[in-house]
């Protein structure tokens, strides 16, 4: 089954620019990574999980939450089965656990999340 492992989180100063990665594996024959849409979500303490960014299977279409538009960039490398989230100009309110999700039709799979804390 599909497995997703996020990395790249940690303690970041305001204004910092970390890049999160999500490495995917376990795809069944005929259902390669390149056939899945990929998303990044985040969940801050006491808040609901929210969609941060999404990228289509080919990478040709991306969408962003208004709160991160212009600061975050989602991308993917289908040859490496990896999706990235480049985060720039981080603010304290970006502090959250960041999750990646693979989705294809009615199927979706979540990673375990990586903590990003923005603080001086």
Q: What's this entry about, in short?
A:
0% of the residues lie in helices and 51% in strands. The protein is mainly β. Strands 2, 4, 5, 6, 9, 10 and 11 form a seven-stranded mixed sheet that branches. A four-stranded antiparallel sheet has the order 1-3-8-7, with no helix packed on it.
Describe the structure.
By secondary structure, the protein is mainly beta. It contains no helices and eleven strands. The protein has strands spanning 3-7, 10-12, 19-25, 37-43, 50-55, 62-64, 72-77, 82-87, 96-104, 107-110, 114-118. It is globular. The model has no long low-confidence stretch (mean pLDDT 96).
Question: What topology does this entry show?
Answer:
Elements: E1 3-7, E2 10-12, E3 19-25, E4 37-43, E5 50-55, E6 62-64, E7 72-77, E8 82-87, E9 96-104, E10 107-110, E11 114-118
- Round the Cα radius of gyration to an integer and report it: 14 Å
Q: How many strand segments? A: 11
- As a percent range, the share of helical residues equals under 10%
Strand portion: over 45%
Tally of DSSP helical segments = 0
What is the first-to-last residue Cα distance? 40 Å
Structural class: mainly beta
Poorly predicted spans: none
